[in-house]
Amino acid sequence: MAKIDLSNISHTYNPSDPNPTYALNPFSMTWENGKRYAILGPSGCGKTTMLNIVSGLVKPSKGKILFDENDVTNLITEERNIAQVFQFPVIYNTMTVYDNLAFPLKCRDFSKEKIEERVKSVSDTLRLSSFLNLPARKLTADQKQLISLGRGLVREDVAGVLMDEPLTVIDPDLKFRLRRNLKEINEQYKTTLVYVTHDQNEAMTFADNIIVMDQGEIVQVGLPKDLFERPKTTFVGYFIGSPAMNIFESEVSSDYSVKINNIEIKTNSNLSKIKEKNVKLGIRSEFINVAEKDGQNTIKASLKRVEDFGNFKLLTANMGDFVIKSKVNREMPISNGDINLYIPPEKCCVYINEKLI
Amino acid sequence: MHKLYTFLKYTFITLWTVFIVAPFLWAISTSFKDFQSVNSKVTYIPWLDFEPTLEGWRVLVKSPARGGVDIVEPYFNSIFVTCTASLISIILGTLAAYALSRFTFKAGFVRNNDITFFFISQRIMPPIVLSIPFFIFLSTIGLLDSLLGLVVVYIVLLMPIAVWIMVDFFNRVPKELDETALIDGCNPYQAFYKVVLPNSIPGLIVAGMFCIIFGWIDFFFAFILTFTEVQLLPVKVVALNSSITPWWSLSASALISVAPLIIVAFVVERYLSKGNLSGALK
Which residues contact B74 (CB under 8 A, 6 or more apart)? Predict the structure, then answer.
């Protein structure tokens, strides 16, 4: 277990190019000992590169990596004592399940008793005990992924366990249980867990802190609540939450108000120092309520669609060119035609150049 | 429809089996014949059509002084040269292939694929082109007409096969396997021999099989680069021929020449049917 510091890290895969494209733009970050982090972002945003830099499979073009203040940038993977689990199961086909799980400990010359104890503990957690003597290649894809996961968890002294979308091939029921197991393991052993995913639910339910990435940039680091309620960029607003945040082109009309389609919407953001006139207003569909009648911060829109998701209803309404989505209680009676939607000022986020004020 | 398919399938298999097995049966039968049985009229079945004799086989083990041709020494020479050259080619070829598959090489305009092509190109040119350079090379280093000289030449001939097969094989072994081994605590060499190599046994067997076949059947270089001191089996078998073609001993020598390859085929087939070649990758 270790505190992992990434200091001014950046990486390009074509360093000899005079104008290299950066897979990771310069950033600094600290992963505290024993915490759970999720790295969330679309495919190709640099998540895997970041993990590979930490594990030593990729050497960063610039910057330093420190494990407990010790510079490990130039250490090879073997010397970093880190565990990494890949998206697809990687198992040693020629070995049994037991030997697969024991391999990281054997490589590090642990005693036979210790190896047996750890393999037993991990195989119990992952429900692999009954397969220990089988050749690993005979297991199913999700069982193979459990072996990969087990190899990552079998060492207690690792600096961190890095997981690159490890549950993609696992079926939903087991996925849920494994996530809980990972949390338990983290709480029990205080292992620093870093979990790459593009599934926001997975990230939200797993991590203490979520790191959202886009195009090689870290766009926001924060608690699930912060990411949901105060997305720092419109990208985070779109990316987190289902449906994505409602984002409207608008104009600043007073110190605390913006206008959408000539309707004044009051916000809690101080806009007095804003030079630009054109801004964007973001509001989560969860926070938009159906109002009985027109009033302050209420907009009239024509209802286009009502979708019943079982635990809530999703309303889609049009206001001019704008599409507004609102999540409401499924018991709420909804009549066709025009509806009034109330936008609470305290939940409004105002963005200039895609960034939160 | 299904019955017709089954009928056609078994007919085809039977015909194919006859096509493959008949020459062997013919060779076995001929190897037990004498001059009379071969040259008088067509004979097929021993004891009924002709009286079998072991003369064709005896000639092969008798020393020339006693009227034989003695292919025992050339036989073991061939086994030694083929096995040694195949083994060294597989070892060197596998290392080269792993490097070409996993690391990026740049030297001027030369890249990994160019290097791989360079290896393969050794097999593209006709062997006759290489005969004079090999002859001069071996004569310069004093290895002409020696087993060691032949081993050196065969390594040159067999290594491209090993590299070619193994590069393709390693390219299909996911890179994550090596990376996982590094993460689990192996250094790059341990990752190769503890993890990647055991997973590559199917590829090694296929490459080994091809090396053994191509090494064993070579006549051209064995003929050009040896004279009196050392002889390999194919050269000796050809030397059996004389003004009266000894079909019986030629058949016998053909059968024992082919025997090692049949054994190799059976071993590989066993391995294949055990499913060890499949499922090696995820």
Answer: B231, B232, B233, B235, B236
